[in-house]
Design brief:
By secondary structure, the protein is an alpha+beta fold. The chain has 2 domains: about 5-80 and about 220-230, 2-Layer Sandwich (Phosphorylase Kinase, domain 1); about 85-215, ATP-grasp fold, B domain (D-amino Acid Aminotransferase, Chain A, domain 1, 2-Layer Sandwich), CATH 3.30.470. Helices cover about 30% and strands about 35% of the residues. It contains 6 helices and 13 strands. The protein has helices at about 45-60, 100-105, 135-140, 145-165, 210-215, 220-230; strands at about 5-10, 10-15, 20-25, 30-35, 40, 70-75, 75-80, 85-95, 110-120, 130, 170-180, 185-190, 195-200. The strands form 3 sheets. Strands 8, 9, 10, 11, 12 and 13 form a 6-stranded antiparallel β-sheet that branches. A 5-stranded antiparallel β-sheet has the order 1-2-3-7-6. α1 (about 45-60) packs parallel to α6 (about 220-230). It is globular, with a radius of gyration of 17 Å.
Length: about 240
């Protein structure tokens, strides 16, 4: 049962639950890009993202990665542990795409010799600027040990998800992760969906993520349905 609205972002709402240390995370149908400048409402998107994120968190749990995920609560809601979120995003890149190409003049599609981790300060107003460990320590966002822990978790996530997607003909190009603390322990939080991952068809390079919306390359709902179907997620709309 949902209680008071605690937080609302571009794609999600967080509500109090019947347990003090757990929240209900509702996935909205909103699609946004360019820090909210581009916006649309796509029917069923929240249910798709909830199903995909729940599926991925369950895969990560089975692989020993600790996250805030408790269970899928309804078609568009997850029950999650309440976290004290850290204002640092960890981005993992396997292939050059997006902002790294603009920053470094790289050709999109360049396969990196090994996965690259980058840190960004989570701030829509500042457009999530890139930062380093020294910034995190100096401004009290995270200690060096915490960043090392977050990056180690990110590498484990990369190992699990890269293999999972490759098995269904999808290349995991890059993705962002957010973390928070519960009882002093760092847990993976937020969501993992095609909203925050770049996913390309291995055979054709066709985009299967939010870049379809950013660049007007087709229907976002159809693409997300394809990702879910390839992963074998059959129950997209109802509570399991």
């Amino acid at each position: 049962m949902k209680g008071e609205l605690k937080y609302e972002g571009k794609g999600k709402q967080l509500y109090a639950s019947d347990k003090a240390d757990e929240l209900i995370q509702l996935f909205k149908d909103d699609a946004t890009a360019f820090d909210g400048v581009k916006h649309d409402v796509i029917a069923g998107k929240g249910k798709l993202n909830c199903a995909i994120s729940s599926f991925i968190f369950e895969k990560l749990h089975a692989s020993g990665v600790k996250t805030h995920y408790v269970k899928r609560e309804s078609s568009n809601e997850m029950r999650v542990k309440s976290l004290d979120m850290m204002p640092v995003e960890v981005v993992v890149r396997n292939v050059a795409a997006g902002s790294i190409c603009k920053r470094l003049g790289l050709e999109e599609g360049l396969k990196l010799a090994h996965p690259l981790t980058e840190l960004f300060y989570k701030s829509d107003e500042l457009h999530d600027p890139m930062i380093n460990v020294e910034h995190c320590e100096l401004f009290g966002w995270a200690t060096r040990a915490e960043i090392d822990n977050m990056c180690a978790i990110a590498m484990k996530v990369n190992e699990v998800l890269s293999a999972m997607f490759a098995d269904v003909g999808i290349q995991l190009v890059d993705y962002k992760l957010e973390f928070g603390k519960a009882g002093g322990e760092i847990l993976l939080g937020d969501e993992i969906t095609p909203d925050g991952c770049r996913l390309w068809d291995i055979a054709t390079g066709r985009k299967l993520d939010k870049d379809v919306f950013r660049s007007d390359l087709g229907g976002l709902s159809e693409v997300y349905h394809e990702v879910a179907n390839r992963l074998g997620i059959s129950n997209l709309t109802e509570k399991p």
